[in-house]
Each structure stands twice: as structure tokens, then as C-alpha cells.
């Protein structure tokens, strides 16, 4: 019996010692880079040799979990792990140690693994801990729980996903505070919250629990809110739906971390692609029309062989049915429709948000097939001035200067300057006509940003932009200084002046981060003077736009709403030949939108009423629904209505360089005698993520249908000598199907494949026909490879894009003589673009590239080019590129 008692007492003593030792141990988790089981063994061995009681490394999560006592510093352990060859969040391995690893252990070193590379992997400060969350509600909850647990102060950063604690160690401990934060619903590096507590969080607060600590949270991004602010850089963009970086949330504005070049938002109820400026660097991207060369959703094509203009198409319809905004303010519309894509330089663009299908009602009524919003450069981690110089081998050159800097703690500014010129006579098909216009453009903008959200709750953004663009096209030898009636050569002259000023101001209600008020205002003056041979067209447009949005919640952030009012004034003065046309469009409107967020679903339903003085009262409902079957499987549904007034002259200038006479068959409407265009759009999409080759891969498939209730048809088939406009009588629809697959077969190599099918038909006067210049089948391939960065941040990148375009129905030209007739369908063709760039360091980049490297071009793109003043001349019958291969070089320098 004594023996058993002795053994029992000894066992209790051993257990007590273990319990006491366990109480003196602390547990922590750190980011450590590694690839395989050999890495795991090496990391854990190094950690234990350095004094860790336990060390468990996860290759999938890239995390090292340590248990240590007070005698051992985790910094010493992580230094030893780095010495063994593995970068971590506090120390970077030497080149010698890294290069000495076996080949299978060579992890990627350029993905922000070292402190200097990115925010999410920076070495943490003292008493800074990883805590997961999404939004301002999370921030308030985390900081409140920390203070309740005894912390003197707590500051949670959504961008870094960390909380910095200040506390008296004699009264509380970091362990106690982090336990309280977990009990409130937020996983952290010490404790994990229970499933029941997590599931009871509001929908907007349901962060992704599978993301490793230290990685950027993809849910931290922008929805539709009122102000975007980069709290760190003291920059504000007061806008009802900004997409810039922020550490302050006015409900609906979330904070961005590191962005992918192109990413499909998993949080948005709609199908929204965020295109970063890194994506734009993959191609020449001289202006907005060239910003979608590596994007499969938007189709870009030449629309006229004489003027060289380009047009976007989305969901099988012309760009006029897509809302094109800048800083979420109306931009490319009205008289700017034909040439406006050239007015936003590529180097000015910070990001683009592309929404397919019905967008939010807070942005207006004109969106039918989607919205493309461009955000200008406003944010920089530190003052930055950049110079870009570009030239191609056919006489085009341009220069861009951009400068972003802080004035003081609350004010920052951006200077944007662009100039370009086309000086060479480019005629690759020997038809005596320039393949693209000659001329110059001067474009300057100034942006001023104010941020005092933390104290007063105010933020504001001001912008001013002036542009002057002069172009001359037509036959080589045409002299613009002589009247067209004084020379035999056919010429085109297009002179455009444009002035814009805008302001966006927002206010966050004190103590209510979910409640905000935003007000946007913009004035635009646009003037165009032009001639096309013996035809003249000129126009002036004055536009004033105002939008006021109030945003708050009903009970909690699962139920959010927006309500507001807008006002739009368009004043038009146009002259075509001898006809003077004037009209004023005055459109006050009201709107409301409700967002319901559940554990796996998001519903956004809105409606607006607009009281158009010429088109009558218009009701515009829109709804978007997203359901997450799993975090990797997302289904979206959308439906909505849109309306617009057709600017038949400005939107169809590609047909002015022809012999076609314009005929408008009036139908009792108040805009050119025509009624407004009204359409319904419906969509469904599936987003699926999975692992392929051990790396992230995704497939997105979507189908959209657009049904026109009324439409202004552009009939090119009635006669080759006529351009006829009339209102739809019957049906007009567009079916669009697209599937896109993104994957990374091996390190640093990204592949994007896409296929699109369009079925676009309308009932013309003489029967139902396919819309011309719209290929039913399209294919897309984009390949991107980049080498690892060196110590100076230098690397090579290689980008290639192939666009395959199927056959297109061409307008009926059977009324022409046989030699001037077009086939019923065009040939299919492929276009290859490629670029190689070299970043020598973080300040210097050079690039060289080529467009249309297959040199496929449309032969005889101009019908009857030998007789431009004759009956059969037509420069608008363009279905393919009009230039052969074109090569370019460029240089980017950052100061």
C-alpha cells in the first residue's frame, strides 16, 4: 500500500511540475516561408535548438507555432530559423543560406515575405498581435473587448489585420486581452473564437477563418460607400463609391490590402472585377481604350478606317450601353462618346472597377450592360513623382508626368500631365489614306485631397482637368490649312476642347462608423469642331451633375440602406451640315437601396425614379444576389432596368467619313424625334476556386441577357448610301456567355483563358437580323511570366495576349457595284500582342512590345478609296485591325 501511495504522490508531483511549467509557457504564431516536408523538418529543428519547447510548422498556412518560456526570446528563435534558410516576418535569410537549400525548398521570396516588402508581412511592433476582422464594426468590437479586459488603449488595423495594445502589465496581460477578443468573436494568434460566437457576428463581420495570419484579407475592400481614405497617407477620396485604400470605414467602404493585378471581388453581390495598375503595365496602355488588352470581358475594336477611332463593347453591345465613369462621376457620354476613350491617359489610372450587368442605382440610370469606373492616381505610401516616355515605330510619341505628395497631415495633392503627338504618315495598306490621324493632345489635371475623418469626420476630394486634342486624318497630302473645297485630297479635322471640375465631400457621423453622408458635384464643358470631307459637324455640351447619398443601418450592419437624390443637366448645341439642333435635358431623381447580409448570402435591392423633362418619368429597379455555397463556390444573380437618351450624331461619327446620308424616321419622341432607349438586363454567374498544381485556380462562367423595351436602331442595311435611325418595333436582344479560367501552372507564370459567345439580334424594318460587326465566337489567351526579384527589386516580365475573333455579319452592300460590295460575313482572324519589360530596380523600368504581331489587317478597309467624294466611298465598314504589326518602346522613371 505504501508503495502505491508513494507512486501516487510522485505522480502528483510530476503532474504539478508539468502544470506549473505549462503555465509559464506562452504560445505564439509567426509567418515563415517554406515549401515541403524537408522545410518543415528544418524549421522545427532550428526552432527547438534555439530554445522553443514545441515548434509546429504548417506548410499550407506558412505558419510556425511556438511554445516558449520567459527565458527564451521568440526573436532569437526566428533569427535561427532565418539562419537555417527560411525568411520569416521578422528576419530575412541571407542569400547564401537561401541558395544553400535543396531545390525543392526554394520558396518564393518576392511575395512580401520580408519586412520591407509589404504591410502584411512587416515585423510587428511590441504588443502588436494578429487579429482577424473585416470592417469598422469589427474594429469597434475588437477595441471595446480589449479595453474591457484592462487595456489602456487598443488600435486595430484592418489593412494589417493586427491590434496594437497598451496596458499596465501589473493589471492585465496580452494573453487576457486576446482571450477577451476571441470571446467577442475574433480569431487571433493566441486564441480562436468558438463557432457559435463567430456565426452570431453580423454578416459584414464574417471574416475568412482559413486565411493565415499575416496575409491580406480579401474581404477588406470597397463596397458602395461614401468616402475612401488612406488613413496612413492622409489621403481622402470623398465619393459615394470609391475603391481606394483606406483605414477608416464610412459604411460600405472597406480597407484594401495588397491587390492582385486583376481580381474578381468575392464580397460584392454583383460581378465586379478590380483591375489594378499592375495589370495595365502588361501592355502599352496609352489611354483607356488600350487598358483592356489583357482583359477578356471587354472587346476593343477599330470603328472607322479614316479616323482610326476605337470603341468598347461589353455583353455584345456597343459602349454607349455601358456606364463609363471617372471617380464615379459621369465621364464618357454625350458628345464625348466617339473619342472620350482617348481622354484618360493610361499612366493616370490607379485602378479600374468593371461591373458586368446591372450596377447600383446610386450611380444613375444609364447603365444597361454594366459599368466601367476609372480611379485616378491619388494614393502613395510616400511622395512620388514618375515620368513615362513612350514611342512607337510609326511616328507616335507621348510623355506622362505624375506626382503624388502630402501637403500636411490632412492635405495631399496630385499633379497629372500628359502630352502626345502622332507625326508619321502611316499607310500600311497603300490606299493613300492615313491608317490613324496625325495630331497632338495636351491633358492636365490637379487633384486635392483632404482627410480629417478621425477628428472632425470630414473628408473631401477636389479635381480639375483641361484637355485640348487636335487631329487630322484622311488622304496623305491633305492640308488642313486649306479649305476642303480648295484641294482634291479628302481630309478630316477633329478639334476638341474639354474642361472639368468636380468635388466629392463626405462626413462620418461621430460614434457611428456605419453612418455617413456624401455629396458629389461635377461640371463639364465639351466642345468639338470637326469636318469630314465636305461635311461639317460641331457641338457643345454643358453638363452639371450632383448626387447626394445618405447611408446607415437598420438595427445592425446586416441591414444597411442608402437613400439619396441626384440632379443631371445636359445642354446640347449641335450643327450637322446646315441643321442646328439644341436641347436641354433636366433630370432630377431620387433613389433608395437596401443591402441584406447573411451568413452565406448578400442581397442588394434598389430602385430609383427619375423625372426627365423630355423622356418622362422613368422607374429603374435593380437587384443583385450572391450566395456562397462554400468560400470557393459562389453563385450570383442579377436583374435590372436602365434607360438612356440616344445622341445619334455624336455616337455614330464613325459613319461620317463616308457618302452615307443621314435619315431619322421620327416617332413622336422629344430627342431628334425619337423615344428614349429602355432595356432590361438579367444575369447569372458561377465563380469556382480550386487548387491546381498546388496553386490557386479559378473559373468564372456567366450568362447575361439584355432585352430592349425600346431602342434607337442604327440601320446600315437599308442602303449603302444611307444611315437610318428609327425606334424599335418588335424585339431586340443580346445573349452573352463567357467562361474564364485563371491558373498558375508553375511559379510566377499566370495563364488566363476565355471563350465568349454572343447572339445579338434585332427586328429591323425588313425583318430580324444579326447586329453587324459582332462576332458570335471569340477566344482569348493571356500568358504572363515574371522572374524573381533581385536584391535591388529588379526583375523581368513577359506578357503575351492572343485574341481570336470569329466571323461577323457585315452590312448589306448589294446595292453597290460588284467591285464595291462586301461579303455577307467577314473572315475570322487572330491578333497577337506581346511585351517584355525590365525593372532594373524600384525606380527604373524599360519595356518594348509589339501590337498585332500576326500583321493581320483588313484589306480594302475603305470602300472605293480611290474616289472619296463619290457615291460609294465608305470608311465605316471596319471589322478588323487596319494596321499591320506596330512596335513600341517605353521608359518609366520614379523619383
UniProtKB/TrEMBL annotation:
InterPro entries: Beta-barrel_TonB, Beta-barrel_TonB_sf, HMA_dom, HMA_dom_sf, Plug_dom_sf, TonB-dep_rcpt-like
Annotated organism of origin: Chryseobacterium carnipullorum
One Pfam family cited in the UniProt record for this chain: TonB_dep_Rec_b-barrel
UniProt topology in membrane: Multi-pass membrane protein
GO biological process: siderophore transmembrane transport
Protein origin, superkingdom: Bacteria
Protein name, UniProt field: TonB-dependent receptor
Entry keyword annotation includes Signal: yes
HMA domain ranges (all copies): 124-189
Single annotated GO MF: siderophore uptake transmembrane transporter activity
Keywords: Cell outer membrane, Membrane, Receptor, Signal, TonB box, Transmembrane, Transmembrane beta strand, Transport
Primary location: membrane
GO cellular component labels: cell outer membrane
Subcellular location: Cell outer membrane
Signal sequence, start to end: 1-22
Amino acid at each position: 500500500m505504501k508503495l502505491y501511495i508513494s507512486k501516487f504522490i510522485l505522480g502528483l508531483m510530476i503532474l504539478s511540475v508539468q502544470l506549473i511549467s505549462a503555465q509559464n509557457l506562452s504560445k505564439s504564431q509567426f509567418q515563415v516561408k517554406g515549401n515541403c516536408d524537408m522545410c518543415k523538418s528544418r524549421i522545427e529543428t532550428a526552432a527547438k535548438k534555439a530554445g522553443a519547447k514545441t515548434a509546429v510548422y504548417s506548410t499550407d498556412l506558412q505558419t510556425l507555432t511556438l511554445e516558449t518560456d520567459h527565458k527564451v526570446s521568440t526573436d532569437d528563435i526566428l533569427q535561427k530559423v532565418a539562419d537555417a534558410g527560411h525568411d520569416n516576418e521578422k528576419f530575412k535569410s541571407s542569400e547564401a543560406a537561401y541558395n544553400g537549400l535543396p531545390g525543392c525548398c526554394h520558396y518564393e521570396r518576392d511575395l512580401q515575405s520580408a519586412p520591407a516588402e509589404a504591410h502584411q508581412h512587416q515585423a510587428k511592433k511590441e504588443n502588436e498581435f494578429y487579429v482577424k476582422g473585416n470592417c469598422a464594426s469589427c474594429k469597434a468590437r475588437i477595441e471595446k473587448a480589449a479595453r474591457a479586459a484592462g487595456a489602456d488603449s487598443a488600435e486595430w488595423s484592418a489593412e494589417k489585420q493586427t491590434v496594437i495594445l497598451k496596458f499596465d502589465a501589473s493589471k492585465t496581460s496580452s494573453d487576457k486581452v486576446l482571450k477577451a477578443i476571441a470571446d467577442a468573436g475574433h480569431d487571433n494568434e493566441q486564441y480562436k473564437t468558438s463557432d457559435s460566437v463567430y456565426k452570431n457576428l453580423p454578416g459584414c463581420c464574417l471574416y475568412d477563418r482559413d486565411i493565415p495570419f499575416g496575409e491580406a484579407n480579401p474581404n477588406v475592400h470597397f463596397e458602395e460607400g461614401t468616402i475612401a481614405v488612406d488613413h496612413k497617407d492622409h489621403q481622402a477620396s470623398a465619393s459615394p463609391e470609391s475603391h481606394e485604400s483606406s483605414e477608416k470605414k464610412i459604411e460600405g467602404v472597406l480597407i484594401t490590402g495588397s491587390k492582385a493585378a486583376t481580381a474578381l471581388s468575392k464580397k460584392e453581390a454583383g460581378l465586379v472585377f478590380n483591375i489594378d495598375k499592375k495589370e495595365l503595365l502588361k501592355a502599352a496602355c496609352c489611354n483607356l481604350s488600350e487598358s483592356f488588352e489583357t482583359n477578356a470581358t471587354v472587346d476593343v475594336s477599330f470603328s472607322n478606317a479614316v479616323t482610326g477611332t476605337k470603341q468598347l463593347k461589353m455583353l455584345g453591345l456597343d459602349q454607349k450601353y455601358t456606364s463609363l465613369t471617372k471617380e464615379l462621376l459621369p465621364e464618357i457620354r454625350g458628345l464625348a462618346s466617339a473619342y472620350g476613350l482617348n481622354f484618360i491617359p493610361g499612366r493616370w489610372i490607379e485602378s479600374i472597377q468593371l461591373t458586368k450587368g446591372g450596377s447600383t442605382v446610386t450611380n444613375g440610370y444609364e447603365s444597361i450592360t454594366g459599368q466601367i469606373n476609372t480611379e485616378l492616381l491619388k494614393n502613395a505610401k510616400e511622395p512620388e513623382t514618375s515620368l513615362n516616355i513612350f514611342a512607337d515605330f510609326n511616328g507616335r510619341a507621348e510623355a506622362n508626368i505624375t506626382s503624388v505628395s502630402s501637403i500636411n497631415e490632412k492635405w495631399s495633392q496630385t499633379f497629372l500631365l500628359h502630352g502626345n503627338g502622332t507625326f508619321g504618315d502611316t499607310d500600311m495598306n497603300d490606299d493613300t489614306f492615313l491608317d490613324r490621324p496625325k495630331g497632338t493632345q495636351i491633358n492636365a489635371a490637379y487633384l486635392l485631397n483632404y482627410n480629417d475623418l478621425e477628428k472632425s469626420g470630414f473628408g473631401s476630394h477636389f479635381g480639375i482637368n483641361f484637355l485640348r486634342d487636335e487631329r487630322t486624318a484622311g488622304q496623305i497630302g491633305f492640308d488642313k490649312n486649306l479649305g476642303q473645297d480648295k484641294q482634291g485630297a479628302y481630309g478630316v479635322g477633329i478639334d476638341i476642347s474639354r474642361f472639368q471640375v468636380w468635388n466629392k465631400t463626405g462626413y462620418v457621423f461621430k460614434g457611428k462608423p456605419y453612418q455617413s453622408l456624401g455629396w458629389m458635384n461635377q461640371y463639364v464643358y465639351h466642345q468639338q469642331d470637326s469636318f469630314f470631307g465636305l461635311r461639317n459637324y460641331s457641338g457643345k455640351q454643358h453638363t452639371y451633375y450632383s448626387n447626394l447619398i445618405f447611408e446607415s443601418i437598420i438595427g445592425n450592419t446586416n441591414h444597411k440602406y442608402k437613400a439619396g437624390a441626384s440632379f443631371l443637366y445636359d445642354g446640347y448645341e449641335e450643327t450637322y451640315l446646315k441643321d442646328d439642333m439644341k436641347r436641354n435635358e433636366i433630370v432630377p431623381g431620387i433613389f433608395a437601396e437596401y443591402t441584406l447580409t447573411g451568413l452565406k448570402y448578400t442581397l442588394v435591392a434598389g430602385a430609383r425614379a427619375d423625372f426627365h423633362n423630355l423622356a418622362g418619368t422613368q422607374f429603374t429597379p435593380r437587384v443583385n444576389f450572391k450566395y456562397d455555397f462554400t468560400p470557393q463556390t459562389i453563385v450570383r444573380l442579377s436583374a435590372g432596368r436602365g434607360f438612356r437618351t440616344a445622341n445619334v450624331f455624336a455616337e455614330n461619327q464613325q459613319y461620317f467619313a463616308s457618302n452615307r446620308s443621314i435619315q431619322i424616321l421620327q416617332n413622336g419622341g422629344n430627342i431628334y424625334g425619337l423615344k428614349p432607349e429602355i432595356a432590361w438586363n438579367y444575369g447569372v454567374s458561377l465563380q469556382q476556386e480550386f487548387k491546381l498544381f498546388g496553386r490557386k485556380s479559378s473559373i468564372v462562367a456567366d450568362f447575361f441577357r439584355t432585352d430592349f423595351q425600346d431602342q434607337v436602331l442604327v440601320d446600315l442595311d437599308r442602303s449603302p448610301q444611307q444611315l437610318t435611325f428609327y425606334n424599335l418595333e418588335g424585339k431586340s436582344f443580346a445573349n452573352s456567355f463567357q467562361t474564364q479560367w485563371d491558373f498558375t501552372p508553375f511559379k510566377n507564370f499566370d495563364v488566363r483563358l476565355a471563350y465568349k459567345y454572343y447572339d445579338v439580334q434585332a427586328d429591323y424594318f425588313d425583318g430580324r437580323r444579326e447586329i453587324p460587326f459582332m462576332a458570335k465566337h471569340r477566344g482569348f489567351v493571356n500568358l504572363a511570366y515574371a522572374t524573381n526579384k533581385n536584391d535591388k527589386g529588379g526583375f523581368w516580365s513577359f506578357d503575351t495576349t492572343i485574341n481570336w475573333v470569329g466571323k461577323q455579319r457585315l452590312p448589306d452592300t448589294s446595292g453597290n457595284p460588284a467591285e464595291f460590295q462586301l461579303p455577307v460575313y467577314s473572315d475570322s482572324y487572330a491578333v497577337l500582342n506581346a511585351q517584355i519589360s525590365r525593372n532594373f530596380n524600384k525606380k527604373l523600368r524599360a519595356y518594348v512590345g509589339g501590337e498585332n504581331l500576326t500583321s493581320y489587317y483588313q484589306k480594302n478597309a475603305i470602300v472605293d478609296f480611290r474616289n472619296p467624294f463619290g457615291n460609294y466611298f465608305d470608311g465605316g465598314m471596319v471589322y478588323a485591325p487596319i494596321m499591320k504589326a506596330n512596335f513600341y518602346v517605353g521608359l518609366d522613371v520614379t523619383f
